[in-house]
Amino acid sequence: MKAIWNNTIIAESDDTVVVEGNHYFPLAAVKPECLAPSATTTVCGWKGTANYYTLSANSNTNPDAAWYYADPKDAAKEIRGRVAFWKGVQVSA
Description:
Layout: E1 2-5, E2 8-12, E3 17-19, E4 22-26, E5 35-44, E6 48-57, E7 60-68, E8 82-85, E9 90-92
Antiparallel strand pairs: 1-2, 1-9, 3-4, 4-8, 5-6, 6-7, 7-8
């Protein structure tokens, strides 16, 4: 699977976990230079608190376009250490 935004491959891995239709990539498969921490958080009743990253590629930014669960609840433990994308990021095989 690949995550592409702004003509840049942000992440690439054959080891993604799909939850609610979203592919969660291992953090090690994401280009660190494309991620900047965000102060945004949201709460999911069964996964826990999500933290966000702003994506950067080709001198453009996409605020809060990636998220992760630093300490997911037990029901979502398989996404610990993984990142998912949205806001125009294309995820495909």
